[in-house]
Amino acid sequence: MYATANVGNGSGSLARVPRRGLSEDNMKKELAGKRGDDMRKEYDLSKLGGGVRGKYYRRATAGTNLVLIEPDLANMFPDSEAVNRALRVLADAAQTASASKRRRSR
Fold this sequence. Notes:
Layout: E1 5-6, E2 12-13, H1 57-61, H2 71-76, H3 80-105
Antiparallel strand pairs: 1-2
């Protein structure tokens, strides 16, 4: 590996500089080929078979309705209970308004 080495006058040279080994606090990962096989013998990956992507997706999302709330509204409604109360009040008001419209139009 070539690297520039600082010379007294500020210019660099293309002198070969030996690479230092990885220090203990280095965050870089080792290459997979250099790592030893640390997996225990009782974990036989060949028995696992192929995985299925999204196998439990429908089950996980059944009965849930995730909605993104704008930050200003999220500050007003700190938890799901507060949101549900507000939506019930709104739904009751809408239902009452709809029922009174039907009575007037008959």
